[in-house]
Specification:
By secondary structure, the protein is mainly α. It contains one helix and no strands.
């Protein structure tokens, strides 16, 4: 008697990864795509904010130039 309760052969599992890893990878992919969408929206908002700030700066500069010339 060898002391084993059950004799099992040691074979490597075939077939690659199971369905659990596919589900996990799919959820990670969905989360990453949501993060990417959020980053794109934030980037657009930052560009819009920069454009508005630039426009206000331009209006202020024009107002100062006109006041120096005695316009307004």
């Amino acid at each position: 008697m060898t002391g084993d309760v059950l004799s099992m052969s040691r074979q490597a599992r075939g077939g690659g990864d199971g369905p659990v890893t596919d589900f996990w990878l799919a959820t990670v992919d969905v989360r990453l795509s949501r993060i990417e969408r959020m980053m794109e929206r934030m980037e657009r908002q930052v560009w819009a904010l920069a454009a508005v700030a630039g426009g206000l700066l331009l209006v202020d500069l024009m107002r100062m130039i006109l006041q120096l010339r005695g316009g307004l």
